[in-house]
Design brief:
Layout lengths: L2 H10 L9 H17 L2 H11 L6 E6 L11 H7 L3 E5 H5 L1 E7 L7 E2 L2 E2 H18 L3 E7 L3 E8 L2 H13 L9 H6 L1 H4 L5 E6 L7 H10 L1 E7 L24 E3 L7 H5 L3 E5 L5 H17 L1
Parallel strand pairs: 3-6, 3-8, 8-9, 9-11
Antiparallel strand pairs: 1-2, 4-5, 6-7, 10-11
Helix pairs in contact: 2-6, 2-7, 3-6, 3-12, 6-7
Length: about 300
């Protein structure tokens, strides 16, 4: 069976899908392989440490993984089995991670072999893989000046790969994105407290109040897409002077004044470019966030 046929069979789930071009199928396979190779136990544990739920309903135990909060270790089970075990809670495995992805004109740029939209797709693949491994569900809303498509919450690899597939098929039409309209739709898509991952160049303004309301209800991560060679994002703003969490590539919005709306809600901001090695950057960022939460 050809590579294209394999991807259609895997992603289609019995539903009609457009034919996937060979070059696109190859890129999809590369994204999937890259994510799978990087998704180690430490990576999944780092995600859980950074975005673990606060629910109190006990849901069992599992083996300890590097990056887990040591305060969740169940010492009785550990003593009985001889292996470190941690307690799990309903919120930890039932949360929804919503990726709100900007697919407007600002994502056309890129350098080397990747566009900013392809970088966004890889972020979704990596963070989504860790979320599913941690028991969370993943959903996606893609926006330009309007909502392009929505994929509802699911907890399986097929749904995640379909998200990547749909993102790589998008062809930005040169329209500026309407982040305010995109954020206004979030309460309909993320009804319970969850994790909101915003992926955008963050051009424009006027969405700060809506973003603030969402940040009070959900955990928020902003991934800023930046094309360094093309100078995108530098004409109107400064690049963060320092990374507040060391070499993780992660900057608290306080020292990142180029996006005032993110500064006001004290969002965690990760700046990525087409040259960024995403897996190690994200893993270190998650571990740093987890340590900060545990302090």
């Amino acid at each position: 069976m050809s590579e294209v046929a394999l991807w259609r069979r895997f992603l289609g789930q019995g539903e009609p899908h457009p034919v996937v071009p060979t070059d696109l199928a190859r890129r999809l396979a590369q994204v999937r392989l890259h994510a799978a190779r990087r998704l180690t136990a430490s990576w999944a544990g780092a995600y859980r440490s950074a975005f673990k739920g606060e629910g109190l309903e006990f849901a069992g135990v599992r083996e300890y993984l590097p990056g887990d909060d040591v305060r969740t270790i169940d010492w009785r089970v550990t003593a009985r089995t001889g292996r470190l075990a941690v307690r799990r809670y309903v919120e930890e495995r039932n949360r929804t991670v919503l990726f709100l992805v900007d697919v407007g004109a600002g994502t056309v740029a890129g350098s080397g072999t990747r566009t900013l939209l392809e970088v966004a797709a890889e972020v979704v693949a990596l963070v989504g893989s860790a979320a599913i491994a941690g028991g969370d569900r993943v959903a996606l809303s893609a926006w330009s000046d309007r909502q392009e498509f929505v994929l509802t919450p699911r907890r399986n690899d097929a749904s995640l790969l379909r998200m990547v597939h749909e993102l790589l098929l998008v062809r930005p039409q040169g329209r500026p994105s309407d982040l305010l309209a995109a954020l206004t739709e979030v309460p309909r898509l993320l009804r319970r407290s969850g994790v909101l991952v915003l992926i955008s160049p963050f051009f424009g303004s006027g969405y700060g109040r809506t973003l603030g309301a969402l940040a009070r209800r959900h955990e928020l991560l902003a991934v800023r897409l930046w094309d360094r060679r093309a100078g995108k994002g530098t004409a109107k703003a400064r690049v963060p002077a320092r990374d507040t969490l060391g070499r993780a590539g992660w900057a608290a919005a306080g020292p990142a004044p180029e996006v005032p709306e993110l500064s006001r809600v004290r969002a965690d901001v990760l700046m990525v470019t087409p040259e960024t090695l995403l897996a190690p950057i994200l893993a270190r960022a998650f571990l740093a966030r987890g340590r900060r939460r545990s302090a």
